[in-house]
Design a protein that fits this description.
The protein contains three helices and two strands; from the N terminus they run H-E-E-H-H. It has helices at residues 18-36, 56-62, 66-83; strands spanning 38-44, 47-52. The radius of gyration is 22 Å and the shape is elongated. A two-stranded antiparallel ribbon has the order 1-2. By secondary structure, the protein is α+β, with helices and mostly antiparallel strands. Strand 1 and strand 2 form a beta hairpin.
Amino acid sequence: VCPRCNTLLTAKWKEPRNQPTGYAVSALIMLFLASLFPFISMNVAGIVSEIKLTEIPKVMFSEDYPSMAVFFLIFVQLVPAFCM
């Protein structure tokens, strides 16, 4: 507390070691939810086309882009999951 104006300058958190764990768990939940919903969805003249985050590497492999598919798997899905 500031001696001059009585403003709170710093505060002690309750159990500060649990806060990063909570953020990591919530980020993993959000990553899981992001894989459930469509990543890209287009609707043109009644034709609907959509792709999910988990289907993108499959499409890249089928279109003969295996190195891009591996990079996508590593840097978009696996690295963020393991960092949490």
